[in-house]
Specification:
The complex is a heterodimer of chains A (363) and B (57). Chain A has 20 helices and 2 strands. Chain A is mostly helical and 363 residues long. Classes of the chains: A mainly alpha (363), B mainly alpha (57).
Amino acid sequence: MYVIGALLIYLALAKNFEPALLMPMGFGAILVNLPLSGVLDQTMEGVGEVKGIVQWLYEVGIEASEALPLLLFVGIGAMIDFGPLLSNPKVMLFGGAAQFGIFFTVMLAVVFGFDLRDAASIGIIGAADGPTSILVANIFKSNYLGAIAVAAYSYMALVPIIQPFCIKLVTTKKERRIRMPYNPKSVSRTTRILFPILVTVVAGLIAPASVGLVGLLMFGNLLRECLRLDSLAQTAQSVLANLITIFLGITIAFKMTAENFVTVETLIILVLGLVAFMIDTIGGVLFAKLMNLFLKKDKKINPMIGAAGISAFPMSARVVQKLALKEDNQNHLLMHAVGANVSGQIGSVIAGGIILALVPGML
Amino acid sequence: MPQLLWTIHMADFWNSLKLMGLGMLGILVVMALIMAIIAVLNKATKPKKEEDGSASK
């Protein structure tokens, strides 16, 4: 585990792979695997049980309440500008279609022999959303939380490599050159304020289990959009998000003890996580191609926009913009892709809520 | 600890297919609803156009 910890630190610092999460996870992996590590609960002779800080953080911040991943959503919500989505709502559907990788991977994980509870926890790696993955895996009491978190954050860092390959696999050069003029409509402040409230209500009524996820994401966004609480919004998107990020990585490391992590299952989970990201991308692109069958010639969508429907923000939108410019240096798709990308943020938490709602009834 | 890998539980497999169908349907329905909400919000909160000359006197 020391080597794995060092590798995670190397990837974070030397290769810039999600350094804010992978560095604390790598360091935490070393901490929890030291013999008789004081960061884990230990029994001392003559004293009895002594609490360890990492285990305590895990038990209180994740296991007991899922507080750490949920509170991080307040910060994420405060960071997101839903403007590009509100001015071009049809890209909303891509945020749903690009979650297909989650459900496909659940099925694949079952084929590999995982039970449905663990398979659902593994599939949610495809949400491309670390806190959602951690939350779902924890609620389902998966044994693989450490591997799931490592896969979720590693592949998010690899989006610029994974997505272009998948997009090229299912599109032609001609399709990648489709131009989409961007004519944003103005979005009123009332719409910006009502949007997070109404989305929470709709998602909560349809998938009550998603209220924690969607509700806190939208609460953070409401702080941002109301324009009356700038100081709170700034704190949420900087101080709060940074504080939780520091402790989330090192807390997850509690599940990275050698007996939990150095297993064949971890390797399979890493492969399944990669598949989830790939199928998400392909699902989004194919959905855009399907929509094109029903659209007039001058209204066609560049199918690459579908790939931006995953939650990895803003990497995915940037990947699409870069690919579009590579094919045609006058084709600017960034704002369309950003709209699909923020809809992916909503889609991923709703997918998490739907899985939390449906899977218990199937166990 | 985990069960033996490569042992497919058919009940779980059928449930995973059901989850795929219901999950994708559910998520697309929610997204379509949100899309409709955005359209209604944009329409309801759109700044009103100037009335014609006679009305704006």
